[in-house]
Design goal:
The complex is a heterodimer of chains A (283) and B (568). Chain A is of the alpha/beta class and 283 residues long. Chain A has one domain: Thiamin diphosphate (ThDP)-binding fold, Pyr/PP domains (Rossmann fold, 3-Layer(aba) Sandwich). Chain A has 9 helices and 8 strands. By secondary structure, chain B is an alpha/beta fold. Chain B folds into 4 domains: 168 residues, Pyruvate-ferredoxin Oxidoreductase, domain 3 (3-Layer(aba) Sandwich); 181 residues, Rossmann fold (3-Layer(aba) Sandwich), CATH 3.40.50; 71 residues, no CATH class; 108 residues, Rossmann fold (3-Layer(aba) Sandwich). Classes of the chains: A alpha/beta (283), B alpha/beta (568). At the A-B interface, strand 2, helix 2, helix 4 and helix 9 of A face strand 7, helix 7, helix 9, helix 10 and helix 11 of B. Strand 2 of chain A pairs parallel with strand 15 of chain B, so a sheet runs across the interface.
Chain lengths: 283, 568
């Protein structure tokens, strides 16, 4: 049995009241629920306030560049498929700077989890519009309101046929822990878009706002129903559904590499016989 | 036997000229001749003007030649474009429809010999006749190539080869290009620079490579991919070069010796990743095959103009090393050395080549595979030192590198400035400690620096300094000058960073006149030598038209500099 204490307790650099606390807590509970020991887990993050999360629990960590958590996570997973790999970052990092990697990761479908803290604003750089900010969202950088339409990560993921798409909310940590645990256990790339308030820079999408807009999906939703999932994914206005929106079985990317059936690459020695054959091919 | 025959096959992309070239090359190598193959092509799939050039004879050859002895023109344009390069004794093989009215022209009625898709086979048979190669040996090469995929095509190929031979026996004029028989050398390898890098990487323990296709680097990875299953490796085409280098770093962090391969523009996208490798102290091999820039430049041509870029790419200060192989063998050996050094120094290590080296091939002796020492990633945890700290301060700057998931110890790596545990730190004392720790690793890179190679005597009247792929052409120019009685030497740098002046300054100072030969417009390497050693090389020969150096180009340059009196 793994206890939550094994995942440690750290002082954070987050604002009091930040949604990140709820997400961190939910993640720890999910890891415990999945019975994963800290050394089996690799958290890969980018840059931003969300991307600091891996520093606040005891696991293996690769805190890489802004926008680049996914390629680093994919590289690590391909090198050692036995690791439980989780890419964790904010909306700016995952959907903005790393947008191309996000799309490519969904297409690949490695067995890994994407946790996107989505507070719909840039926090660490102090309050510019993010890819998921509402149109008209006023900031010092967008004084006339954001002109661009918001990115809907859940709708994009469902459209692309990503194998697991969920939306959680930092204000419902137990529900969120359940979603993250399902995402980790899911075989394939699992996206959990996590709505969260930013108490410092987002005065629109507040705790109160989310309370008024979000609702939990009930038993009547069948995540295997793609058409229904797409309708729900596009529902992002007066009401915002939370839960597993879409889920399906798809081939796992890394399982299609024959050599990875033999375990992590680090344990595979260079075959001199194989090399001899390769060299013979140039004769 | 003729010492040096230069044969050039020219035509449009899609006419099968590379097939003729490769089959002829293989046959020549197996028969024991020396060859040097260089390719020139346009950035397109069909059309354009492409050439496949083979220098053959006694050799050995280390560079292409400008003048042509045997021209195979698969289209009329080839004749026009290469007319001026023909030597006085040259033969021109061309279809009767556009054959020029020149002595030495062999106007071939290809249509009478067979259907058009087989005309390249016909040309191959004609060349075999001229060079005096055995029909059987040539046919075997065709059989090896076609046998597996298109056995049904063998009979028609055989037929046109026989017809062409018969035709040639009656129509080829007198010439002096018939090779005398040599002892077959059945075990030699025919490798180009990119293939040698791929083979070196596999021998060096490479396990992972991510890439985004970019000429002239792509064929390194295509070669690797062919051997993925045999060698137990994973290779992945990334969504872009940023993804590629971050994947390679992620894989290296998790224990797979990793590389990326790209060219200037793609490498520009990787620059932040280089810095990430420096900060997280993750080993990664970065192969940059140069082509002329700026921007898209000339995608299929050659240049040595990214030296300063590769040296300085990546923000912040961290150690790196840059190898610049000058030969096929060096591509193989230095790739292994670079992989090993990346792991030992936990740093980004570079292999800087160019289109010329990438696409040139030469026969070489097989490598001794018993001598390889593949990289082992990471170290075993030391039970005595707990808790584990990824960035523990040490005298040489190297902290033991554990791999995540391979023990119960936790590994924390960070692109932010970090403490010994790997966690973010904004403490200024920690910052100073970490900057100095990372820079201490430079000492290892200096100790491991491969010394420049002096070809000739110390204190020669003329010293030609070069780096990377210019080695072959400079070597040939030196040989020509020596034959004419000049006192001349070559100093070639197979590694361009770090430079260790103790290894070369006295050689520069002892020489009469020093000339730097490099494939760029501004003399980047000469500038680097001056910055690191204080020695200002007074003269240089540069090239930036997109073509590789030749001995003739260098000899002309020396004449222009009045560095030496030469009549090439």
């Amino acid at each position: 049995m793994i206890s939550i204490e094994e995942y440690g307790k750290y002082e954070t650099a987050w604002c009091p009241g930040c949604g990140n606390f709820g997400i961190l807590n939910a993640l720890k509970h999910a890891l415990v629920a999945c019975e994963l020991a800290p050394h089996q887990v690799l958290l890969v993050s980018g840059i931003g306030q969300a991307a600091k999360a891996p520093h606040y629990l005891k696991v293996n960590v690769f805190n890489g560049l802004h926008g680049r958590s996914l390629p680093a996570a994919i590289g690590a997973k391909l090198a050692n498929p036995e690791l439980t790999v989780i890419a964790e970052s904010g909306d700016g990092c995952m959907y903005g700077e790393g947008g191309n990697h996000f799309l490519a990761a969904l297409r690949r479908n490695l067995n890994l989890t994407i946790l996107a803290h989505d507070n719909r604003v840039y926090g660490l750089t102090k309050g510019q519009a993010s890819p998921t900010s509402e149109q008209g969202f006023v900031t010092k950088a967008q004084p006339h309101g954001s002109f661009a339409a918001p990115f809907n990560p859940v709708a994009v993921a469902v459209t692309m046929g990503a194998s697991f798409v969920a939306r959680g909310y930092a204000g419902l940590p137990e529900h969120l822990a359940g979603l993250i645990a399902q995402a980790i256990k899911h075989r394939g790339t699992a996206l959990v878009d996590i709505l969260q308030p930013c108490v410092s820079f987002n005065k629109v999408n507040t705790f109160q706002w989310y309370k008024e807009h979000c609702y939990e999906l009930g038993e009547d939703h069948d995540p295997a129903d793609h058409a229904q999932a797409l309708r729900l994914a596009l529902e992002f206005g007066a009401r915002i559904p939370l839960g597993v929106i879409y889920k399906m079985e798809k081939p796992i990317f890394e399982e299609q590499f024959a050599v990875l059936k033999n375990g992590p690459l680090v344990r595979q020695e260079v075959s001199r016989e194989g090399l001899g054959k390769v060299m013979q091919g140039y004769v | 036997m003729p010492r040096d025959i230069h044969l050039l096959i020219g035509g449009e992309a899609g006419q099968g000229l590379v097939t003729i070239g490769q089959l002829l090359s293989k046959t020549l190598v197996r028969a024991g001749y020396e060859i040097f193959v260089s390719q020139s092509y346009h950035s397109r799939i069909r059309g354009g003007h492409n050439t496949f050039a083979i220098r053959l004879g006694e050799g050995p050859f280390s560079a292409p030649r400008e003048s042509i002895d045997i021209l195979v023109a698969l289209n009329a344009e080839t004749v026009t474009l290469h007319l001026e390069q023909l030597t006085g004794r040259a033969l021109v093989i061309a279809d009767a429809a556009f054959a020029p009215d020149l002595p030495g022209t062999i106007a071939v009625p290809f249509a009478e010999l067979g259907p058009e898709p087989l005309w390249n086979t016909a040309a191959l048979a004609l060349l075999g006749n001229i060079l005096g190669l055995s029909s059987e040996a040539l046919y075997q090469a065709v059989e090896t190539m076609l046998g597996k995929k298109h056995p049904e095509a063998l009979a028609e190929n055989r037929e046109i080869m026989e017809k062409s031979r018969e035709w040639a026996a009656r129509h080829v004029p007198e010439h002096d290009f018939t090779l005398t028989t040599t002892a077959p050398a059945a075990d030699r390898l025919l490798l180009n620079g990119n293939e040698a890098i791929a083979l070196g990487a596999l021998a060096g323990g490479l396990k992972f490579c991510a890439f985004y296709p970019m000429t002239p680097a792509t064929s390194i990875v295509l070669e690797l991919i062919t051997h993925a299953e045999t060698m137990g490796c994973v290779f992945e085409q990334a969504e872009d070069e940023i993804g590629a280098i971050n994947m390679a770093i992620g894989a290296a962090f998790a224990g797979a010796p990793s590389m990326v391969a790209t060219s200037g523009g793609g490498f520009a996208l990787m620059a932040e990743g280089v810095s990430l490798a420096g900060m997280t102290e993750t080993p990664v091999l970065i192969a940059v095959a140069q082509r002329p820039g700026p921007a898209t430049g000339m995608p299929t041509r050659t240049e040595q103009a990214d030296l300063e870029f590769v040296l300085h790419a990546g923000h912040g200060e961290f150690p790196r090393a840059i190898f610049a192989p000058g030969s096929i063998e060096a591509c193989y050996h230095l790739t292994q050395k670079a992989l090993a050094l990346a792991e030992r120094s936990q740093s980004p290590i570079f292999l800087l080549t160019d289109q010329f080296l990438a696409d040139s091939s030469r026969p070489i002796a097989p490598f001794d595979l018993a001598a390889i020492t593949p990289v082992i990633a990471g170290v075993e945890p030391d039970a005595a030192v707990t808790p584990y700290q990824r960035y523990r301060f040490t005298d040489n700057g190297l902290s033991p590198r554990l791999l995540p998931g391979m023990s119960e110890q936790l590994v924390v790596a960070d692109s932010d400035e970090h403490d010994e545990d790997g966690h973010i730190s904004e403490d200024h004392g920690v910052r100073i400690g970490m900057v100095e720790k990372r820079l201490r690793k430079f000492t290892l890179l200096q100790q491991e620096a491969v010394a420049p190679e002096l070809n000739g005597e110390k204190g020669a009247d003329l010293l030609l300094v070069c780096w990377g792929s210019s080695q072959g052409p400079v070597q040939e120019a030196v040989a020509v000058l020596r034959e004419k009685g000049h006192s001349v030497a070559m100093l070639h740098f197979p590694q361009v960073w770090p430079l260790v002046p103790d290894q070369f300054l006295d050689l520069l100072q002892a020489s009469g006149k020093v000339v730097c030969v490099e494939g760029n417009a501004t003399g980047q390497f000469a500038r680097l030598i001056r910055g690191e050693s204080g020695f200002a090389i007074p003269a240089r020969i540069t090239r930036y038209d997109g073509l590789p150096f030749t001995a003739r180009y260098i000899l002309k340059g020396l004449e222009n500099l009045a560095a030496v009196e030469v009549r090439p």
